[in-house]
Specification:
Elements: H1 18-24, H2 27-39, H3 45-61, E1 66-71, E2 79-84, E3 86-88, E4 94-96, H4 100-104, E5 105-106, E6 126-130, E7 137-139, E8 142-151, H5 160-180, E9 189-195, E10 197-203, H6 204-207, H7 211-216, H8 241-256, E11 261-266, E12 272-277, E13 280-281, H9 282-302, E14 305-308, E15 324-330, H10 343-362, H11 364-369, H12 374-377, E16 392-393, H13 396-407, E17 410-412, E18 418-420, E19 442-444, E20 449-451, H14 461-482, H15 488-502, H16 515-524, H17 532-535, H18 542-550, H19 556-599, H20 606-636, H21 642-670, H22 681-685
Parallel strand pairs: 1-8, 16-19
Antiparallel strand pairs: 1-2, 3-4, 5-6, 6-8, 7-8, 9-13, 9-15, 10-12, 10-14, 11-12, 15-20, 17-18, 19-20
Helix pairs in contact: 2-3, 5-14, 8-9, 10-14, 10-15, 13-15, 19-20, 19-21, 20-21
This protein binds adenosine-5'-diphosphate and magnesium ion.
Magnesium ion binds near residues 196, 323 and 450.
Amino acid sequence: MGASEFDNVGFGSLTFNRSAMKKYLSNETFQAWNDCVQNRKVLSSQTASEIASGMKDWALEHGATHYSHWFQPLTGVTAEKHEGFMIPSEDDGFKLEFTSRELIKGEPDASSFPSGGLRSTFEARGYSAWDPTSYAFIKDRTLYIPTVFFAYSGEALDKKTPLLRSCDALNRQALRVLRLLGDSETRSVTANVGAEQEYFLIRKELFNRRVDLKLCGRTILGAPSPKGQELDDHYYGAIKPEVSKFMKDVNRALWKLGICSKTEHNEVAPGQFEMAPFFTTANRANDQNQLTMEIMKRVADDHNLVCILNEKPFAGTNGSGKHVNWSLSTDRGENLFSPGSSPSSNRRFLVMLAAFLKGVDEYSELLRCSTAYAGNDLRLGGLEAPPAIISVFTGMYLENLIDSIINDSNFENASGSLMEAGKAVGLSIPKDLTDRNRTSAIAYTGNKFEFRMPGASQSIASPVTYLNTIMAQQLKEIADSLEGSGNLDQDLDKLIRKILKEHRRIVFNGNGYTDSWLQEAKKRGLKNLKNTAMTLPEYMSEKNVELLTSNGIYSVSEMEGRNEVHMQKYCSLILIEARTMVKMLCDIFSSVALYSAKISPARSMVLNDAILDKIQKTSSVLMKDEEKLEALIEKASSFTDNSSLMVFCSEEIIPQLEKCRESADRLEGLTHPDYWPFPGYTELLFSF
Ligand code: ADP
Ligand code: MG
């Protein structure tokens, strides 16, 4: 037998996973940890000490010299602060120390992380606390400990805490409904997530010559390439050797961290690719996605490439999303969104389906909020992504099933056999329930929902937190209304029918990219929150505050803090783009002047005359637009509140940026490439 590529993969070898724990912990300690994770039992301090000691031995044997609490502040990326294991010993030597104290709690000086006013700089205490439900791992000779991050007042300052709270709320409410359905054995319900990650690769040498890519993560100007993605010859095309080497190295790094990268392929735009991991629990999937983004960037760097995660790095070609596949499973391995074949499972499926549709319909603005930020504004409703309207694609089978329940009529499955729906009894739903739909915000894909709105660069924590919470809320309402019912099956069927009837409007199985859908959605009363400035004001709506506080996800002040952070981040990004535009235009003016000087001695030539004339005209328009942009940047500094600055950025600065871009791109077409200060779209997009 020859050697397999997988022989030395060392899957999960850099994580303190179950098998490492079994080796480094006593059986008793391992069981206590397991109980904590599975059954949410609190760990004793004795157990924590033993875990710290085992973790330390494991980390040292794997070459770690430092450890770090690893947390997810509201920046959307991760943060870390390394501490050495080494401390001086009495005999002038050193010893290596790592106890439960270091494992459990850290206190990074966190005054500069965004908190939206939850914590002022003079009261800068921030704490990190170990999350035992996600594995510690080793990277760069450092032991990373996944942690939550919170203020002295106890308020969450991160994205992991609300996610964990939402997993708990969902578990609690789902169990209530399962009990009502006669399930006395399931002990926990978990949200599972698989996040497909899209990205672009470009050569580092080109990246370094584009100040916009460096500072904004995307090109804010650039004339279109004569060839874009219209031939669809990149999508699923043969992966070029250079890219393949990159992917191989990414896979190897991810596998060692226990991340099962599963699918990889060329995406639609030239230079665009995708990786999808095998799904796991929501909390781990969130940690893993953060690590994946980091590893992709780092490996790209080793290959003299740059991995771009921005949602829309290049105008006119597809942007990058991050489809969040989400499902619910029990500790017994059952998927609650599987239609199943036995009558009781079908009833369970219908309750879950109804709850989900109602949740999405009632809280569509909140889901939209979780994907609202400057980068994603350019992607949603573009060439590649769902419109900003939230709807659910169920596929025709489910749509027919839903309609038959609403109308109390017969349901005909694919093979033509009749099913009596409405009573949710005896349904045998065909296996291939749905065709693929790429145009809806949310699509049912057989046993899970795919939330297609999140953008490539963002943390998946908030989208998943909200999916969990709206589901928890609906299950709570269902349990509240049915607990104590004298005729449960009948009441349940009635409730399912009522819910489906009231929320039928959220189901849409047509093409979401068409104008007719925009009209239809409007008729149905579905909101089209086109951009961040339109969306974020919905965040603090009464119903959202009620939903998130009553389910224990946030306190009101935590929400207020987050709201400020989101608005502030949006404004900062737009203003960075504006200042970068000014800088680039300055470079463009001097380059164009040089080029004009070069061709003007030959002014008598008709052609040069014509070119110079056009350059002059375009430049003078651009100069005026640039001055206007500078004036707007100046004006922005006079705003004192984020919400009006956000509107100003959206309504004044962005249109002005677009105006500048239009003339700049025209000038690019008029100027000889040798004189243009930045590499153009053809070079950037067709590097491979
Ligand atoms: P598609 O190609 O239709 O998008 P895939 O089967 O390739 O679907 O899955 C895409 C992503 O969905 C992967 O990350 C995968 O692990 C994840 N996924 C599959 N099943 C589930 C599930 N039950 N719950 C959550 N995620 C899932
Ligand atoms: Mg998908």
